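B., you asked whether I could sanity-check this one before it goes into the benchmark set. Here's the sequence:
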Amino acid sequence: MTTSHLFINPLSGRHRRRSVSDLVSRLARAGLHPQVHSVTTPADVLGRCRAINQGPASPLVIVAAGDGTVNAVVNGLLPETATLAVLPLGTSNVLAAELGIASVEEGIARIVAGRTRPFPVGLLHLEESSHRFVLMAGIGLDASVVRDVWPLGKRLLKQGAYAISALLSTLTWDKSLIAVHAGGATRSCHSVIVCSASRYGGDFILAPEGCLFSPDLTAICIDKHHRRTYLRLAFELLSGRARTSREIFRMPADGIEITGIKPVQLDGDFVGYTPARITMVPDFARIIV
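And here's what the prediction gave me:
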């Protein structure tokens, strides 16, 4: 019998309006009886994952929280040991959207059906540490917005906290450039978003060629340092026209290197500064689809 675990973050998304016991009851009605892990920080997640790594083989790990908690779980589990599943109960649920899971009920039904696929993840190498990511690595402006967001504001205002941080970033504008090396080419740019999925920042399509199950990455380069460049790109993203934007340049590759000094965020959490190298872990886990 497969051992199962359920990660929930009581500070995230809809957990404030939906009790944990209700979720556990719905899982039980579907024949699932996971061990519940209530976590609020990445350190909490890593501690629980260490215990899972030492437990029975091939566990099912269900994450009923946002993309940040999924990221922490992916960084805590050993490669090629677990099957992952997601239930969209977080502030940000981009991974669930990529999988086409629109509700908790649909997510539970897919877990019961048991269909899985191999799941690659990205791997960011900094000078003194390495970090896995599921959706994207942002280097430059979006990482500075994530780095400077007010934690309490994030809890109270959700995505609005990022909008405030973005507005404040215009007051201390950094015009410096970085070099992106990918697919045998080098490009100088102001920011880059390395995508392993199609969506960015919610349900907005930034990399339509991106696929969760592909071993390849797409570097979305923003060449110009002007504020108006980002305003135009934001409008195009919100209106669904980013795929044809003239403000970005796409570089597909299976590995990417960034030189220069810029902040870095992974799946919505700040992790450090470039220089950096990005590769893929091709078969990190299996994931319920």
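One thing to flag: The two ends are 20 Å apart (CA to CA). Otherwise nothing jumped out at me.
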